[in-house]
Amino acid sequence: MSGEVVDNTSLELSDLINRVLDKGAVIAGSVTISVGDIDLIQLDLTVVLTAIETVRSAERRRRELQKEANADVPVLPTE
Amino acid sequence: MPTYLYCLRSDGQEPPAGLTGVDGGPVRAIDAAGLVAWVSDVSDKVTATIDRMKAHDAVCAAALAAGETPLPVRFGQTFRDDAAAVSELESRNVPLRTRLARIAGCVELRIIVTGGDRVSDTSAAKTRQQPPGSAETPPPKEDGPGTAFLKRLAQEGGADLAREAACEDLRHAVRSAAKSMIIGQHPCESSRGVSFFPVLIRRADVDAFRSALAEMLTFKATGLSVLGPFAPYSFAGDA
Questions:
Q1: Chain B residue with minimal CA distance to A13?
Q2: Residues 181-220, chain B: which have Cβ within 8 Å of A?
Q3: Which of B79, B163, B174, B238 to mutate against chain A (most A CBs within 10 Å)?
């Protein structure tokens, strides 16, 4: 096949879905993915943001604990 | 009534008169700590349909055509009302401004690889199945339906690998050929039967970039499409 730049309606549609559903700035909100009248997936973007923030906070806390602890003394989990 | 968010901008440009968005709602601008958000009113539930995704993209395209490069927002972001939207935007003002600055004056082009026929010299291509009837592959007529199904899956997987290898190969070639024009670039992704990579280039360089790509394609043998220019969805990041 020689190199070519082609237009293709189905390709544009596939790209539209990839672009607007998978990319773009995420602020907050929710989206439901459905086909016809059937809801397939409910994405709560706020929950995703919250979960990421929770993970980051836990990681920050873990690093703080490591700093505080003497290198020779292991950090034990608190009950 | 819930507020649906399309994009953000810092130049204060208002939507053109008559512009409509998701479900035909008139698009309007609201202020949020110095940023301007293009929004419209929607019903409570915004499910992802093709028409709504097209409407979302059309508003971002209109925003791109109206002035400075907007920061496109991912589909489906609704807020209780304008005040809730403004509150969320204000709380993320700094990262949003950083992202707007990063894409200022730029657009996104998406290079989509639809074939990988000439990648036989790559390692991934070695996984491709031999042509039917070759020494390594028994004739299809001897296969039962289950075996034929599994072989078809393997063949499709091999084609995916070949396409991804071609995509990476092309991405590096594009970078070499148009390095001075590329502001940002992401690795190849594969989704829904195609492989692609986005590039961020200056708006003034779109024609020159396409020409450089066309010139390069005279010796590259890969089926591809170049879509865009778009508002830089792939470079908007999470805020």
A1: B50
A2: 189, 191-194, 196, 210, 213-214, 216-220
A3: B238
Q: Is A2 left (phi over 0), alpha (psi -120 to 50) or beta?
A: beta
pLDDT digits (tens, 9 = 90+) for A49-79: 445 555 556 666 666 666 655 555 554 554 4
CA–CA separation, B40 and B55 (whole Å): 11
- Rounded mean pLDDT, B135-160: 70
Angstrom CA distances, A13 to B145, B150, B185, B223, stand at: 33, 29, 22, 18
Q: For residues A46-67, b (16+ Cβ closer than 10 Å) or e, as one string?
A: eeebeeeeeeeeeeeeeeeeee
Helices B50-66 & A9-22 angle (0-180, nearest 10): 80
Q: Average pLDDT in the B63-86 region?
A: 94
Between these two residues, A34 and B102, which has the higher pLDDT value?
B102
List the Cα angle B183/B232/B97 in 5-degree steps. 85
Residue with tokens 């953000």: B8
Residues B54, B73: Cα–Cα separation, whole Å: 14
pLDDT in tens, B164-185: 888 888 899 889 889 999 999 9
Domain boundaries, chain A: 27-70
Residue B111 φ/ψ region, left for φ over 0, alpha for ψ in the -120 to 50 degree band, beta for the rest: beta
Q: Where are the beta strands (DSSP E) in B94-193?
A: 106-113, 182-185, 189-191
CA atoms of B23 and B209, how far apart (whole Å):
36
* CB atoms B73 and A25 under 8 Å: yes
pLDDT at A6: 44
Share of chain B above pLDDT 90, in %: 52
